[in-house]
Amino acid sequence: MMAFAPALLLAACGETEQKPAEPAVPTAFPTGQWEVTSTVESLASTDKSTPAVAAKVGDTATRKACITDAKDLAALFTSAGAKCTTISDYARQGRVNTAYQCPAKGGFTSPMANGRYTADTLEVQLDTSSRFSGAGDFQMREKATGKRLGDC
């Protein structure tokens, strides 16, 4: 047994601990069919009235979107069918930072997404605020995760 100890020690010297490989991060956001699931983490009135949004803390929503242009990610972070104006749509080197202004009854909402992506996953924090001519202004925070399903 003692004769094998030096051989084992020498064999262990060349070994290094294997770490899992980091997911691939493409330079541009990967186009294709995406599925994004978001969960409302907080919702607060900003004008001391009832928030003019149907969501409540704990609600989840899932949407699918076909992204054909890495510079237009609105379908991932805004309501289905919304005609939003892009304020900022940055998605490069694994980082996402977007902002939109979307018309809503009596005003607009402003969703913003900030987070990270890989070749086939997405994780962002969505912060949405509103400005209405009447009551109902709110701020909502959601956590969203997504996965690329394939080509459109």
Quick structural summary:
The chain contains two helices and seven strands, in the order αββαβββββ. By secondary structure, it is mainly beta. Strand 3 (85-92) and strand 4 form a beta hairpin.
Question: How would you describe the overall organization of this protein?
Answer:
It contains two helices and seven strands; from the N terminus they run αββαβββββ. The N and C termini lie far apart (62 Å). The relative contact order is 0.25. It has a seven-stranded antiparallel β-sheet. The protein has helices at 5-13, 74-77, and strands at 32-45, 60-67, 85-92, 95-104, 107-117, 121-132, 138-150. By secondary structure, the protein is mostly beta strands.
Global outline: globular
Number-wise, the strands total 7
- Arrangement of strands in the largest sheet: 2-1-7-6-5-4-3
Question: Helical residue percent?
Answer: under 10%
Class based on secondary structure composition and strand pairing: mainly beta
Mean pLDDT: 89
Largest sheet: 7 strands, antiparallel
Number of alpha- plus pi-helical segments: 2
Q: In sequence order, what are the helices and strands, one letter per element?
A: HEEHEEEEE
Distance between the termini: 62 Å
Rg from C-alpha positions?
22 Å
